[in-house]
Specification:
Elements: H1 4-18, H2 27-63, H3 69-100, E1 121-126, H4 139-146, H5 151-157, H6 168-188, E2 191-192, E3 198-199, H7 201-207, E4 219-220, E5 225-227, H8 232-236, E6 243-245, E7 251-260, E8 279-289, H9 294-311, E9 316-320, E10 332-340, E11 345-356, H10 358-363, E12 366-368, E13 375-376, E14 378-386, H11 387-397, E15 405-406, E16 420-421
Parallel strand pairs: 2-7, 6-12
Antiparallel strand pairs: 1-9, 3-5, 4-5, 7-8, 8-14, 9-10, 10-11, 11-14, 12-13, 15-16
Helix pairs in contact: 1-2, 2-3, 4-11, 6-11
Length: 427
């Protein structure tokens, strides 16, 4: 969230920096409200001065044993006027804060300009795409033939864009979660956390999902709870309205949770399979750090996510998102995109972002430097990584000509040494 004083003093600059990211922000209305607020503050300050002067006058009259009825009546009238103007000011500020919550974060100066994903910049690649003797099959065909994915019964139970894993498929998802969490704990120094999967409105607002993206969320209307779209939401709010000692930073958490998102609209091939579903599992990394350390932490977090794909021997690339593709709350984002053979393209499997103070201001997350006043800290998060999409990548990249799928070496200890998923015999 942007500070109202900063918006007042730098509105044109902020509007220019955001460009297409804030095309739906009512800038003219915002400017009028800021001007109205400025005028109301001046009026309230002037009336408060009148109140002080009037109070001094009444006190002087009483000390001199003079009648103060008229002065006191004037004071009451001025007091009523002050109360009315203060209420008006609070109303304008509330309206301004509502608009400010809908303004995206300002991109870091290193973010490449652009309007859409075509302007994202590739940073590096790792590994090589596998070679196949026949055309590779999509993961949904492989999973159904192997008896480990069932989309029809998932649809019967819940509806479209839900998936059901069973047998080795369910075991493989569990193995992936355990493998990822253990790696982040043992090698990257994260602390595991299991947060609530239902959160309140303030928590959703703190990380930027509300108010702008409410229609994308699953909402329990009677209780005003929301199902989490990612573990980033509850974990980032862990220290909301708290002041942490500088010596506690950085704090790094890893959480494995289900995630719930409304996937509206049509996405071509993505209407089938596991790429875009309403419920999926994901391992999330969240970091709280000092501002001066946050971009080193972004590099560290991104590398932690990359190690997952490297240990699974999955070909991927890293791209930095342009200004037009950057998420609402992010100042800078690196996407990890894994190779999907059936589509002959790369698909996002992890987003690693630095939000700088954007979420910290919304959630009032601060730290106290040694011998200093409290400052807003920086928050970061990244997928470490999305489990469903990793399952997609494994099925497609490790498929064999006979329809079987090789289990990556790194996962076999979590699956009792299983080396291959084979097509079950016909009934």
């Amino acid at each position: 969230m942007h500070d109202l004083r900063t918006l007042r003093d730098q509105l044109d600059t902020i509007r220019q920096q955001l460009g297409v990211r804030a095309a739906d922000v009512p800038w003219d209305e915002l400017e009028k409200l800021l001007q109205n607020r400025r005028e109301l503050i001046a009026q309230v300050d002037a009336i408060r001065h009148q109140v002080k002067t009037g109070s001094d006058e009444v006190a002087q009259l009483k000390r001199n044993n003079q009648l103060a009825d008229t002065a006191m009546a004037n004071m009451r009238a001025i007091g009523d006027h002050l109360k009315s103007q203060e209420e008006h000011l609070r109303s304008v500020e509330k309206e301004l804060e509502g608009l400010a919550l809908r303004i995206p974060n300002i991109p870091h100066e290193s973010v490449p300009p652009g309007t859409d994903p075509a302007h994202n910049q590739e940073i590096r690649r790792w590994g090589h795409p596998p070679e196949f003797s026949v055309s590779p099959k999509p993961h949904w065909e492989l999973g159904e033939a192997l008896g480990i994915l069932d989309f029809d019964r998932a649809s019967k139970i819940a509806g479209a864009r839900f998936a059901l894993s069973l047998g080795i498929g369910a075991g493989l998802e569990r193995a992936l979660a355990n493998f990822m969490v253990e790696l982040h704990l043992q090698e990257h120094g994260y602390t595991e956390i299991l947060p609530p999967f239902l959160v309140n409105r303030a928590t959703m607002t703190g990380t930027g999902q509300l108010p702008k993206f409410e229609s994308d969320l699953f909402h329990l209307q009677d209780d005003d709870y929301f199902l989490i779209p990612t573990a980033e939401v509850p974990v980032t709010n862990l220290y909301r309205d708290e002041i942490l000692p500088e010596t506690a930073l950085p704090i790094r958490y890893v959480a494995s949770t289900p995630c719930f998102r409304r996937e509206a609209g049509s996405y071509g091939q993505d209407t089938r399979g596991l790429i875009r579903v309403h419920q999926f599992n994901k391992v999330e990394l969240v970091v709280f750090t000092r501002p001066e350390d946050s971009y080193d932490e972004l590099a560290r977090l991104t590398q932690a996510a990359e190690v997952i794909l490297q240990r699974l021997d999955l070909h991927y690339r890293v791209v930095t998102l342009c200004t037009g593709d950057l998420g609402f709350a992010a100042a800078k984002t690196y996407d990890l995109e894994v190779w999907i053979p059936s589509q002959q393209t790369y698909r996002e499997i992890s987003s690693c972002s630095n939000f700088e103070t954007f979420q910290a201001r919304r959630a009032n997350l601060r730290y106290r430097p040694k011998n200093g006043k409290p400052n807003y800290l920086h928050t970061l998060n990244g997928s470490g990584v999305a489990i469903g999409r990793t399952l997609v990548a494994i099925l497609e990249n490790y498929q064999q000509a006979d329809g079987s799928v090789i289990i990556p070496q790194a996962l076999r200890p979590y699956l009792h040494g299983l080396e291959k998923i084979t097509v079950p015999p016909p009934n």
